[in-house]
Specification:
This protein is α/β, with parallel strands linked by helices. About 30% of the residues lie in helices and about 20% in strands. The protein contains eight helices and ten strands.
Amino acid sequence: MPENEPARLAEWRESLKKTYADAAPAPKEEAGQRAGPRPEPRPEPRPEPKKAPAGAAKAGPKTNSGIPGLDELIGGGFEPQSVVLVTGDPGSGKSTFGMEFLHNGAVQYGEPGILITFEERRDDIIRRMKEYGWDLERLEAEKKLKILEYPPHEVERFISEGEIIRDMIADIGAKRVVIDSMTSFALVYDGEYKMRLGILKAIDSFKKWGCTTILISEGSISEQGDVRDRFGIEYLTDGTIYLYNKRMRDYRQKLIEIVELKGVKHDNAIHPLSFGKDGMSVEARTE
């Protein structure tokens, strides 16, 4: 039995007593006895509102990315518990996007997160993200972040450990999850049918975790300008964001496009994406 179960049972019993007492008929008055005024019921005390963690920004009805310039383009943030695909060109900053989403959640909004990586080693991620001043080891020690490393040949172990991951989510109270990347996850399957079925089941599991989830994957742009994820994941998620690494004359320009966010009024323009000492930020579009 969970530790708080006896308290819940006691509250439930008291609630039943009150319900039956309120529903019981009033006692009949004896002959000659005059009825006096009934005492007014005492108001029930209101529970004290829960306080946000010290130093945490005020959380709204949305899941804020905390990436400068992005939340304004997506209606204030992502829908809570949605699954969003971040796809795009190689070297466009997809992994950094996912890590900044987790870091900002833990540091700015008091929302712990979990990174599930199939490609990079945990130590390499921690070392690389220090370039932005992000102390991921400290966040792990404070149970604000968990990095789970599954090498590509252990993807099947990840699939079989779904319940273990749910326990980890509950243990740290995770509100955010990033999967990096779905490319390694999908390649474990033999044949396109099994791959699509496996991805479908995985996304269904991600939604049951109750977290706002970012899926990282490879993508491309068709000749008609349509965004295409390598595995067609865009048709199974609640939204798609595309990151470009566009070759200009003598340099490369990184860009971001909000392709789709279901049920959200979002910006449709392609915006410059810059990387500084504190991470990435979305710049205002200049004509």
